Amino acid sequence: MSKPVIVLNELTKSYGKHRGIENISFTVEQGEVFGFIGPNGAGKSTTIRTLMGLLKPSNGGASIFGLDCSREPARIAKDVGYLPSENCYYNNMKVKEMLFYTAELYGVNAHSRMEELAERLNLDLSRRIGDLSLGNKKKVGIVSALLPSPKLLIMDEPTSGLDPLIQQAFYDILKEENKRGVTIFLSSHVLSEVQRLCDRVAILREGKLISVQSMKELRENGYKKISLTAKSAIPEDFFSVPGTANLEWDKSKTSVSFMFSGPVMMIMNQLHRLELEDILIEEPSLEEVFLHYYE
Amino acid sequence: MLIFRFEWKRKRKYILIWAATLAVCIFSMTPVYYGMIETVETLPVEFTQGGFFETVGISLELLMEPLGMYSFLTGFFMVAGGIFGMHLGLSLHTEECTGNTAEYLYTKPCGRKQIYMGKLLCALAGICVTGIFYLATSFLTMTLFRFGFPIGEFFLVAGSFILISLFFALLGLMVGIFHPNNRSPLLTAGLVVFVEYCITSFSRTVNIRAIGFLSPFSFFSPAEIHNAGTYSWDYMLWYLLLLFGFALLAYWKILKRDIALAV
């Protein structure tokens, strides 16, 4: 059995009146690609910044490689490549200078790795960071995180600002890294990205952990999206059966779509009472599944 | 040393410009001021009887000595040195926060202790360079224009410039760590140094020595150096306590604090 690389234990960070995160607990196993999803302001970055030792927890704790994140961030950082959500690089430096500085801070010689990654991500190493576009600055961050060949990659909104071609190159790099045993922890609100890359996902909302599920579980949680059209108007309370959510009616009240989770026969018996013109039962998209969690 | 080398590279130009400017100023201003007075009688009555020189730590007796006018000028250059030191110390930390680079630096394997030491060393190196420039140029100026000055007293007066700069550099480092989101470090440095200078002037005007403990400018009065031939031991003890206090508080805080993002 693989050992956990990241362990969060009742992790809490409060900022006085502002909401932080509350009692977040989960583990990330070695070699896993773990997604961390939530709407803006859910607490994703706060959790990640606490993991990186930038913020001191108000309560609870977190560890990476068995080391306490708030006590030994420097030891942990040796094996972690971190990509922050904001661009945070020295604008007056050239890309190459900054990446060499990163390599020096990690104590590695990464010249060939730098060249290789820059080529794959189409990054010009000779330009001044302050002159780069948002997307190119993001590439600098990605190369900087991957440069020391870390055992763990922590990435906060890694693809924001990247064009689709570079996103694809980035996904390929991540898959290669994962193949050679690197654990990946990434936050995102781009669900297709999570769907494509992750093995498991934690869902965060208003600073609280809603659920941790494998992608398979998430899709197989029993939710079905049902869209139907009846010959006559359907009474509004017709679908007030347990397990029904996200009802969306049309104006004439003859068409409705909703999410359902529960015994199939229960909803079938209910539908049987309607004179149906059309019906579509499908697997909901991840967006729809998550919307359900967020509401 | 890596952080120090990086910080030094970033600050080198700024430090050298300050050092060169101060050196040029002391070299060009000293002979001009010496030329303005030959005897006390040549000074306006308001200056000699109004207590003006006493508020800047100079006595009329000292003013007529070979080191007098140099000490008078150094009193003002200490203000400039203080602003330089405090701005250097402050900006070493505030620039990381306001430039949004703190998240990069503090997530690297160097750790907070090394970051602190690197920045502290950079501040100390900056003070050393400026101090050496000031000391060397002062010595050259005095040798050229007022040969025969007492060497020991000269080094104490010129050393005051370095000690004042050091004091404000460490104060700046500490304040920068406590309030890293300061977007106007030069204004802050200017205000703090000016207020400190006013406190010293006030303590000398009202002749209450205890007030002088609130400002480092009081610790290095040229008149007292001239009379005693050394710095006052009680002021020096307090000065050293404050220096260690600033350095320790800053170290404690950098280990404990959250790394803030710029707002």
From TrEMBL, chain A:
<dbReference type="InterPro" id="IPR003439">
    <property type="entry name" value="ABC_transporter-like_ATP-bd"/>
</dbReference>
<comment type="similarity">
    <text>Belongs to the ABC transporter superfamily.</text>
</comment>
<dbReference type="InterPro" id="IPR050763">
    <property type="entry name" value="ABC_transporter_ATP-binding"/>
</dbReference>
<dbReference type="InterPro" id="IPR027417">
    <property type="entry name" value="P-loop_NTPase"/>
</dbReference>
<dbReference type="InterPro" id="IPR017871">
    <property type="entry name" value="ABC_transporter-like_CS"/>
</dbReference>
<keyword id="KW-0067">ATP-binding</keyword>
<dbReference type="InterPro" id="IPR003593">
    <property type="entry name" value="AAA+_ATPase"/>
</dbReference>
<keyword id="KW-0813">Transport</keyword>
<keyword id="KW-0547">Nucleotide-binding</keyword>
<dbReference type="Pfam" id="PF00005">
    <property type="entry name" value="ABC_tran"/>
</dbReference>
<dbReference type="GO" id="GO:0005524">
    <property type="term" value="F:ATP binding"/>
</dbReference>
<dbReference type="GO" id="GO:0016887">
    <property type="term" value="F:ATP hydrolysis activity"/>
</dbReference>
<protein>
    <submittedName>
        <fullName>ABC transporter ATP-binding protein</fullName>
    </submittedName>
</protein>
<feature type="domain" description="ABC transporter">
    <location>
        <begin position="6"/>
        <end position="231"/>
    </location>
</feature>
From TrEMBL, chain B:
<feature type="transmembrane region" description="Helical">
    <location>
        <begin position="154"/>
        <end position="178"/>
    </location>
</feature>
<feature type="transmembrane region" description="Helical">
    <location>
        <begin position="120"/>
        <end position="142"/>
    </location>
</feature>
<keyword id="KW-0472">Membrane</keyword>
<feature type="transmembrane region" description="Helical">
    <location>
        <begin position="69"/>
        <end position="90"/>
    </location>
</feature>
<dbReference type="GO" id="GO:0140359">
    <property type="term" value="F:ABC-type transporter activity"/>
</dbReference>
<feature type="transmembrane region" description="Helical">
    <location>
        <begin position="14"/>
        <end position="34"/>
    </location>
</feature>
<feature type="transmembrane region" description="Helical">
    <location>
        <begin position="190"/>
        <end position="215"/>
    </location>
</feature>
<dbReference type="GO" id="GO:0005886">
    <property type="term" value="C:plasma membrane"/>
</dbReference>
<keyword id="KW-1133">Transmembrane helix</keyword>
<protein>
    <submittedName>
        <fullName>ABC transporter permease subunit</fullName>
    </submittedName>
</protein>
<feature type="transmembrane region" description="Helical">
    <location>
        <begin position="235"/>
        <end position="252"/>
    </location>
</feature>
<keyword id="KW-0812">Transmembrane</keyword>
<dbReference type="Pfam" id="PF12679">
    <property type="entry name" value="ABC2_membrane_2"/>
</dbReference>
